[in-house]
Specification:
Chain lengths: 168, 165
């Protein structure tokens, strides 16, 4: 592998799309991507060799009022991991699905994030719950989901001597 | 207790030219005695629960010398072992497994997580009191329980069944 491959790739991306990015360290690039034209950008990246979508992570920023989605892409050719960071509105958490680009691997990750954070992926045809059955309440991975309160209400019994402590 | 033509007694009586389709009665105590000779186990394990019971099956502790074997279907099982934390999703499947088991049946819960949620006591998705969902005959505490503890529990079943005569 040629040395200093990362700046060259970042340069290619930023010149093509006019978006900000940085080389974090060897083999790691972070890019901030706007929601407009996001899927087209992903398609282009895949053509550039980033054909493996390792994971999609979601980060909740309640003060800022945003969800941050991080798409981790791996290129077998260049041995580089690119992280795409997309921020979407927390109140209206909708983003275009990348299932048409990475298909199956994107499908499962999007389904999970939809279940645990409540982000809607437009274009993903199967967002049925994966782990939680008959779930009522906020998506549990949101920061404003009060799990102590939820557990108290759903599982504990105030009359039970050993569980009373959780109400004090 | 009635038994249709498929079980062992049914076949024996068939040889004596019993009328086809006739019901054969098996004494409850006879049926229980059979349980002493061979405990057939069905495992319902989540997470680490399975790994902790494997030593009991393997050669060092070797539960088969007591006639205990693991069966592939709950319909063949006398005893249901539940181990590992149970989520709301998995306990529903466990209930279905339990309902498929033939009487007399025994349910044994292994380990702290199974009984109370263990370290997941405040998780939004793990059940806290197993007996709210399934009738449990015996609890074996521990994280994990020792193989000897499991044998002791099974010995208690043997003694219990013997005492029922």
């Amino acid at each position: 592998m040629a040395a200093k491959e990362e700046p060259r790739i970042l340069e290619r991306i930023t010149s093509q799309f006019r978006i900000k990015g940085e080389v974090r360290r060897r083999g790691r690039i972070w890019i901030d991507v706007p929601t407009e034209g996001f899927v087209d950008f992903c398609k282009w990246l895949k053509e550039q060799g980033f054909e493996h979508l390792s994971a999609i992570s979601a980060i909740d920023w309640p003060v800022e009022g945003k969800f941050e989605l991080a798409y981790h892409l791996w290129s077998y050719q260049d041995k580089i991991l690119i992280t795409l960071k997309v921020k979407i509105d927390r109140q209206n958490a909708v983003i275009d699905s990348v299932t048409e680009v990475w298909d199956g691997s994107a499908q499962a990750h999007e389904r999970e994030i939809h279940e645990l954070f409540g982000v809607k992926f437009e274009g993903n045809n199967n967002l049925t719950p994966l782990f939680l059955e008959d779930w009522q309440g906020l998506p549990p991975f949101r920061k404003d989901f009060d799990w102590r309160e939820y557990v108290r209400g759903k599982y504990y019994d105030r009359q039970n001597e050993r569980e009373r402590v959780y109400y004090d | 207790m009635t038994c249709s033509g498929f079980c062992r007694e049914g076949r024996k009586r068939d040889n004596r030219r019993l009328k086809k389709g006739a019901k054969v009665t098996v004494k409850e105590s006879t049926k229980l005695k059979r349980l002493i000779k061979a405990i057939w186990i069905f495992n319902w394990f989540n997470s680490c629960g399975f790994i902790e019971l494997v030593p009991v099956v393997a050669s060092r502790w070797d539960m088969e010398r007591f006639g205990m074997i693991i069966v592939g279907s709950p319909r063949h099982a006398d005893v249901l072992f539940i181990a590992g934390y149970q989520t709301l999703k998995s306990i529903k499947r466990a209930q279905r497994v339990y309902e498929q088991m033939a009487e007399p049946r025994v349910v044994i819960a292994l380990g702290a997580c199974t009984m109370t949620g263990g370290m997941y006591w405040d998780s939004y998705n793990t059940i806290k009191r197993l007996s709210d969902y399934i009738p449990i005959n015996m609890y074996i505490p521990g994280c994990p329980p020792r193989p000897e503890a499991i044998f002791e529990a099974c010995e208690k079943i043997f003694q219990h069944v013997k005492g029922m005569d």
